[in-house]
Amino acid sequence: MRPELLRATDAEIDDAITYADPMVLRGLIHQLTGDPELEAVPLKTTTVWLMESTTPATDADVAMIRRKAADFLKSYRDGGAGKIDPGPAERLRKSIDLMFGETIPDESQGWVKEEIALDPWVRSLKWSAEPDTERLASFSVTIIGAGMGGLNAAIMLRRAGIPFTIVEKNDGVGGTWYDNRYPGARVDSPSRVYSHIFAVDYPCPYNYGPHAVNQAYFDWVADEYDLRDIIAFNTEVRALTWDEESSTWQIEAHGPDGKRTWRSNAVISAVGFLSRPNLPEIPGMSEFAGPSWHTAYWPNDAAVGGKRVAVIGTGCTGYQLVPELAKIAGHVTVFQRTPQWLMPLPNYLGKVPEQILWLDRNLPFHTNFMRLRNQYRSGADLGKMFDIDPDFVDPHSCSASNKALRDRSIAFLNAKLGDPDLVAAMTPAHPVWSARAVIVDEDYCILDALKLDNVSLVTSGAERIDATGIIAGDGSRHDVDVIVYATGFKANDFLHPMTITGRNGQTIGQFWEKDGARAYLGCMMPGFPNLWALYGPNTNGGLQVAAYHELTTIYALECIEKLILDHARSIEPMEEAFWRYNRLVDERNLGKVWSDPRAHNYCWVAKHGRSVSQNPFSGTEIWNFTRHPDFADLEVR
Ligand code: NAP
Predict the structure, then answer these.
(1) How many other C-beta atoms are found inside a 10 Å radius of the C-beta of residue 190?
(2) To bridge 241 with a disulfide, which of 26, 147, 387, 501 should be the other Cys (CB 3.0-4.6 Å)?
(3) What is the mean pLDDT of residues 454-463?
(4) CB 572 within 8 Å of CB 528
(5) What would the mean pLDDT of 605-609 be, rounded to a whole number?
(6) Are 584 and 471 contacting, i.e. CB atoms less than 8 angstroms apart?
(7) CA 438, CA 427: separation in Å to the nearest integer?
């Protein structure tokens, strides 16, 4: 029952519908009604943010779709707005194609049908046989971390009835969002897909949620699924040691009561890959007399109002922080070593119109179709801009579409800054997306901040720090009251700083010593049985984070199911399968812009000649790789 809809007037319904995405309405209303007229709508292709988008050809076509949607809602209201079916399953493929204005290929069907979240528990374990009660009760899993990945893993293990323990180093849930509270912190993936499929109806007041909204979502997950009481907070796992005899992991953690050890049959690491701050080593840092902190440790009582603040580091974090800091600080001095490419988005900072939120609540399955529209488009189209075209020769770009992105970004710099010296200072030397580009609001962003009287840019480096300020590379002195280090994370040190010792006493550090972190399907390592890493090596990109966590978790659960049902002791990838997958990762990464010799970022590790973070696969490929374990690739003992 939707009481809000029952009260709505025709005019309110018509108004709300004018805000909806007509292609979403086309697919959704087709699914609900089967109206053949919606199939015949002529389409045109437009370019939105350099991505091709299909829309109805004429205003009259848009009006027709809106009228049909409004008629549907009015008759649904008049019929009592009760429980409603999502329409026939066999119609769904056609309806999804109509929403995208294209034929979604066979190989994407599995992923797409899950991502629309009509079954919110489609990524939970369905036991293939009844587990032995005693065996199940004696099995245990430890989850490390209660951020996005760990919370989902806990919910899924509980649904499967598998006993587990969950520990978290912080004193609250949320992981990266718990840590990163600096002014301006905000997601750069659409919020619609920065949430779990079981939470498709969770309100999305922003297209890109700010810190507080994201943190509220994770608090909601913990409360809604009753997880808070079972999480051991302020407890940090320092070591995992595999015990061959018992086929268990010995876990060593440090918490409020000191050191604690216990054993688990399996471990799911959900520690994130941007969780350990990287502090620079600048001579004299310790001499600074004022307060200083890394952005991931932003104090709740940070007194920056009216103060002279230095920000060292200009990645996503620095560029998000400076425009907000400029509103409150007396003066902000930005120390930029490397500029980053900016991707301007209209209304990146803005709220979703109230009418869309109304549709989310009152138009059945609007949230589902909106989620899929955001997920599939961002995955498929963005990927094309990362490919190196070997025949495209250009001093700055790796393909025609990569160059178009660069041209657009430079046009934005010129339009915003005017001043050629400043434009030059803000123009990166590396190709677009060879390092993480920064999504910014078209109307107010770092470039607007740089033009303010209370913001200055230093590009000669922070050479030395003393009691009262920073001496730049050009010898200039910048006295400040506060220093903020926006210097990023130890992104390539996976599972750092835990000591993980697998079979035969081999540590994960030794295993990865030669050419950096690697995993089979981004989550499993031979010699480290019954261990899964969420968002492990080579998982960055290709798929939204929540979806990746969900897929790796259900993959782990299906492996655990095998252990339980077969009364087996351990499962790990075979060496051959591990290397086969990794050869493919490395080979495909060589065709991506982050392998360009001009790249400069954590995405590419020159030391090893390969990327340990980046995923070269599409969402469809990732889904097909990971959705169910291929037991031929795994050694079960
Ligand atoms: P980052 O991208 O690694 O940037 C770190 C910055 O610190 C760079 O400008 C780097 O300069 C500078 N730096 C590092 N060591 C330095 C030193 N010793 N002296 C001077 N400068 C130094 O870190 P981040 O900005 O925190 O972002 C990390 C990742 O977090 C991003 O790639 C993104 O995945 C994620 N993130 C996302 C969002 C979002 O969703 N909107 C927001 C923030 C972060 P060089 O480039 O010259 O090394």
Answers:
(1) 21
(2) 501
(3) 97
(4) yes
(5) 73
(6) no
(7) 13
Q: In this structure, are residues 156 and 124 in contact, taking their beta carbons and an 8 Å threshold? A: yes
Does the pTM of the predicted model rise above 0.85? yes
Confidence at 278, pLDDT banded by 50, 70, 90: very high
Residues 294-323 have a mean pLDDT of 97
Q: What is the mean pLDDT of residues 14-28?
A: 98
What pLDDT is stored for residue 97 in this prediction?
95
Question: Which atom of ligand 1 sits closest to the CA of residue 282?
Answer: 18
Largest CA distance in the chain: 75
Secondary element (H or E) of residue 88:
none
Ligand 1 centre to CA of 314 (Å) is 6
For a pocket test of ligand 1, which of 436, 485, 544 has the largest count of ligand atoms closer than 8 A to its C-beta? 436
What are the pLDDT digits (tens) for 477-530?
999 999 999 999 998 899 999 999 999 999 999 999 999 999 999 999 999 999
Q: If pLDDT is split at 50, 70 and 90, which confidence band does 294 have?
A: very high
- Ligand 1 atom showing the smallest separation from residue 602 Cα: 3
Atom number, ligand 1, closest to the C-alpha of residue 180: 43
Between CA 361 and CA 461 the distance in angstroms is 51
Model pLDDT for residues 536-553, shown as the tens digit of each residue = 999 998 889 999 999 999
Which ligand 1 atom is at minimum distance from the Cα of 319?
25
- Cα(540) to ligand 1 centroid in Å equals 15
Kindly provide the residue ranges of all beta strands, DSSP E only, lying in 325-476, ordered along the sequence: 331-335, 342-345, 438-441, 455-458, 462-465, 469-472
Distances from the Cα of 53 to the Cα of 57, 69, 192, 290, angstroms: 12, 21, 18, 51
Q: How far is the CA of 31 from the centre of ligand 1 (A)?
A: 44
What Rg, from alpha-carbon coordinates, does the chain have? 26
Mutational test site, ligand 1, from 191, 487, 492, 613, max ligand atoms within 8 Å of CB? 487
The rounded distance, in Å, linking the Cα atoms of 433 and 412 is 16
pLDDT at residue 384, as a whole number: 74
Rounded CA-CA distance 385/399 in Å is: 8
* pLDDT at 379 > cutoff 70: no
Best probe residue, ligand 1, of 191, 274, 322, 459 (max atoms within 8 Å of C-beta) = 274
Over residues 568-606, the pLDDT tens digits come to 999 999 999 999 999 999 999 999 999 988 887 766 666
Give 374 Cα–ligand 1 centroid separation in angstroms: 26
How many C-beta atoms lie closer than 10 Å to residue 539's C-beta?
27
* For ligand 1, atom 19: residue with the closest CA: 280
Cα(200) to ligand 1 centroid in Å equals: 31
Count each helix (H run) and each strand (E run) in the chain, helices first.
20, 23
Neighbours of 370 (CB within 10 A): 25
* pLDDT value of position 609: 83
Query: Which residues does a 6 A CB cutoff place in the pocket of ligand 1?
Result: 186-188, 274, 280, 312-318, 320, 337-338, 436, 462, 486-489, 602
State the sign of the Cα–Cα–Cα–Cα dihedral 161, 167, 168, 172: positive
